[in-house]
């Protein structure tokens, strides 16, 4: 299946890109992150990282669908 | 809109006015300021990156939760985006309610949740010339989990 991945803040700097199209067999958001971390040497998993799918906050365990836009948020620090 | 993101200075007086209510006897305002130091480093300025589509949606949700939980009458939150100088207001929370207790509680709830749930990132530019993304994970929950109270 095909998904679009977007990286923000620290993750954007670690991967050197803000978005990419990814063709992969499918799975959970956590599995997609692992796959992207294998592709981008600098991308590091963080316990407090968050994920959103199609502009809604999601769980790392949620299963992705074809065409989803997956947003990887490094640990947030508002305020 | 109850939650908004602004790339220009926050008008605190206008925000107070927006929660003005004759049935309310209490207004609690929290201003988060840009401080000149963090974790032993001298801060020169700060940069906020905000992913608006999710931040606004989730921010509105936090305010709805606060209103429902604490029964306050009016609440709003405004967060800055972009480059900020020392002393500027980075985030503002205003809550009005008939009595002060629930207004304090709701205000605290909104700022604490905003710090942990909204896709907002802070890059500190230090006087030394170095800049760094701030990881707020350990300070967000308690508001002051370690000595230097990073970003209240």
Order of helical and strand elements of chain B: EHEEEHEEEHEEH
Name the beta content range of chain A: 25-35%
What's the CATH class of chain B, please?
Alpha Beta
Indicate the low-confidence ranges of chain A by residue numbers: none
Unreliable stretches covering 5 or more consecutive residues of chain B: 138-152
**Can you count the beta strands of chain A?**
5
Q: What is the CATH third-level topology name of chain B? A: Aldehyde Oxidoreductase, domain 3
**Top CATH class of chain A:** Alpha Beta
Radius of gyration of chain B: 15 Å
* Inertia-based shape of chain B: elongated
Number of domains in the coordinates of chain A?
Answer: 1
Largest interface: A-B, 20 and 31 residues
CATH topology of chain A: Ubiquitin-like (UB roll)
Radius of gyration of chain A: 11 Å
Strands of the largest sheet of chain A, in order across it? Answer: 2-1-5-3-4
Order of helices and strands of chain A: EHEHEEE
Overall, the morphology of chain A is globular
Mean pLDDT across all residues of chain A, rounded? 96
| CATH 2nd-level architecture of chain B | Alpha-Beta Complex
Q: Structurally, how many domains make up the residues of chain B?
A: 1
How many beta strands in the DSSP annotation of chain B? 9
């Amino acid at each position: 299946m095909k998904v679009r991945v977007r990286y923000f803040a620290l993750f954007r700097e670690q991967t050197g890109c803000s978005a990419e199209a990814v063709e992969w067999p499918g799975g959970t958001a956590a599995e997609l992150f692992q796959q992207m971390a294998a592709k981008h040497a600098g991308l590091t998993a963080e316990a407090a990282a968050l994920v959103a799918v199609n502009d809604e906050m999601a769980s790392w365990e949620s299963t992705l669908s074809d065409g989803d836009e997956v947003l990887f948020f490094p640990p947030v620090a508002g305020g | 809109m109850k939650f908004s993101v602004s790339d220009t200075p926050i008008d605190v007086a206008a925000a107070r006015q927006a929660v003005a209510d004759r049935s309310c006897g209490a207004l609690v305002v929290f201003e988060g300021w840009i401080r000149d130091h963090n974790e032993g480093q001298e801060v020169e300025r700060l940069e906020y990156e905000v992913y608006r589509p999710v931040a606004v949606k989730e921010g509105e949700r936090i305010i709805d939760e606060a209103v429902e939980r604490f029964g306050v009458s009016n609440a709003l939150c405004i967060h800055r985006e972009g480059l900020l100088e020392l002393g500027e207001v980075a985030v503002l929370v205003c809550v009005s309610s008939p009595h002060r207790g629930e207004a304090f509680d709701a205000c605290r709830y909104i700022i604490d949740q905003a710090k942990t749930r909204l896709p907002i990132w802070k890059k500190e530019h230090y006087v030394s010339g170095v800049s760094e993304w701030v990881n707020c994970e350990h300070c967000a929950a308690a508001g002051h989990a370690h000595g230097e109270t990073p970003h209240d």
